[in-house]
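agent: user wants the full assembly modeled, not chains individually. Plan: 1) parse entity lines 2) check alphabet per entity 3) run joint structure prediction 4) return tokens. Steps 1-2 passed, two entities, 825 residues total. Proceeding.
--- entities ---
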Amino acid sequence: MGELFDNLRLGFATALSLVNLALCLGGCMIGTLIGVLPGIGPIATIAMLLPITFNLEPTGALILLAGIYYGAQYGGSTAAILVNIPGEATSVVTVLDGHPMARQGRAGVALGIAAIGSFIAGTIGTLVVAGLGVPLSEVALWFGPPEYFSLMLLGLSLAVVLAQGSLLKAGAMVLLGLLLSTIGADLETGQDRLTFGFDDLSDGLDFAVLAMGLFGFAEVLRNLEGSEHQPKIESRIGRLLPSRADFKQALGPILRGTGLGTVLGILPGNGAVLAPFASYALEKRLADEPSRFGKGAIEGVAGPEAANNAGAQTAFIPLLTLGIPPNAVMALMVGAMTIHGIIPGPQVITNRPDLFWGMVASMWIGNVALLAINLPLVGLWVRLLRVPYRLMFPAILVFCCIGIYSLNNRPGDVLLMAGFGLAAHCLYKFGFEPAPLLLGFVLGRLLEEKLRQALVLSRGSFLPFVARPVSCALLLVALVVIIVALLPSVSKKRAEVSLS
Amino acid sequence: MKHMQWVALVVIAFFWAGSAKAQPYPSRPITEIVPFAAGGPTDVIARITGEYMSKLLGQQIVIENVKGAGGTTGITRGAQATPDGYTIMMGHMGTHAAAPALYPKLKYDPNKDFEPIGLAVGTPILVVVKKDFPAKDLKEFIAYAKANQAKLNEAHAGVGSVSFTTCSLFDSQLGIKPAKVAYPGAGPALNDLMGGQVDYMCDQIVNVAEQIKGGKIRALAIATAQRSPALPDVPTTKEAGLPDFQVSAWNALFAPKGTPKEVVAKLNDALAKSLDDPATKKRLLDLGGILPDPPERTPDSLARLVKKEVERWTPILKATGAVGE
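--- prediction returned ---
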């Protein structure tokens, strides 16, 4: 326990340095901004800001990116409550009761309870990350190339199983991602593979180019397809602080939502997305009068918001302790870490305690900041919602292009990004999600590298993968995950969830 | 109206200044291409020396990182730049000595396509082993390696990297053929060495010094004539029984072929003076760097070094059968 406090002290010392504090606040502001604006999400934003972070110190870079991520969770609920449009996928549920509350003139209370619930959940979630980080990272000692390979395989199978929509399509996207990751010089012989004679490809596809094309560019295209009409905004905010009765009613849902979100967030695979849905269903079941739900029940805002934010915090656990990104945002974090020469995995906590604990501390500082940013600045966010799309979308595209060009000063990268954007849009039209592709791409390089290192070390024998206990266990879990997902009853449930 | 007159005056003055032809070099910022990612040893050296050179020259030296293909992408771009002294580059052992053997389609010749400016800083190479490796010193390592070749695993940071090239020399001097495990960079390779997954590797002092001091890996020898002040306990290869293994990853400034002699001389002078500046010198020495003696700092000396190094590395690397990435 004393060690935990020492670690947290190191973390706060790191996170409270002037630069890191500014980056944390900046990230939270940007995150709230893009969370409020419908159409542009944290994935696209982080992808766009990657080039900027290259010049930062790695801890600062990750603090900034993390701030954007959980800032967006806060901002998403503002749009959901005021405009009836979920700014983020995770605030879909908040719309159900948050907007009715706004129409009853209780927009301020809805915003207030969402922010307070998120704050409580964020605090608990951060504590869980701090407490579980070290025990989980002890496994680092057991990890050699075969174990990493099996772990990546598990991560990929979870990416397939937990993706939205068809298993087959998600699997296909993961494989496409793996294929794209093999472009470039072979690690051991240095021979070019799949470069078609282009020298620019011999170092492989740039992660930022792919991510920005798949998410930044494609997201704008997708938004343009819908006819451009900006929604009506509920501008009567009312009082912000919930009354004592409101708070009493909301406390139970907040704590239960936090519990659900914490557990679901830890799961590799995109568990955090399910958390608000699960919390809403739970609260509706527990309520004395389920009919109030959908008509402005405060529990329907408090629970899911808490669940959402707790999940957003604990989603960092698989990334920081095992190096497995549970969702596309975390995959971008892996990209940001590797660009800074930090290989995500159990060794990060021991080798870079300042980075790990600095991030943990910054999460909590960020939550405090978000509480401060969100409540008094609601008026500002409302006004931002009125920026016309015809100005916003071209600006986003221009930023994407400048950002990518600044990476390597290569015009080809800009074209490549545009190509990926178009391709992702077509795939999206046919119901293929780009997230599994990105996960496949990110994990693919490590997968191949670890496989080949393991085989060189074993002089070509596949035996270590099953003979070493940790590796064997991971492979078995991966197998079970796939079998379970293929069971008829489970696959039916999955279909229902993705339809809702 | 008064304002307009002032504006006109300033504009005229500006054009007059602009039309004055015979300006001394340099009259605008100089781009220095670093062919590796920001933060690596070569980049750090370029930034430290560049800072003081900027002061001396009165113009900013702007570092441009153009990474790719073991540094050859950036050097190719630099070799093709206008030879006016406004584009220079920081080449190193890999780009100007190992590259011809590793890259069959290399678009430049290290001996012919450049005006050498001067040698900057070398970083010594160390032989490091995992913590619980059976051999205690280099002599024991050599005996063990020869007896247990089939079991021996060497880590390196990718074909064409400094760790790959220098360890290839080490292996060839010992006459051993270990399994070479490739990692994408020195960091991951070191990580598995610390975890005991691989047995040994060779790398630059900047990359391994902290882990040696922290007791996570052990250093058997440093491949220089003298011990390094950064790691005073590590014996030299001469002391440890392998005197022929003398190698350091040198970094040097080059200009494209055809750059005027007086420009090269000016840059050489600025580089040499920056190495003598106490603050700059201290920062470079803290990194474990080796500063060249004044006779080694001339353009001619660098030209001779490049020629000698290409001749030295080509047969060793050809023998490994590897092609650069």
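agent: reporting back. Strands of chain B lie at 30-34, 61-65, 87-92, 114-130, 153-156, 179-182, 200-204, 217-222, 248-256. Residues 28-122+250-320 of chain B form a domain with the D-Maltodextrin-Binding Protein; domain 2 fold (CATH 3.40.190.150).
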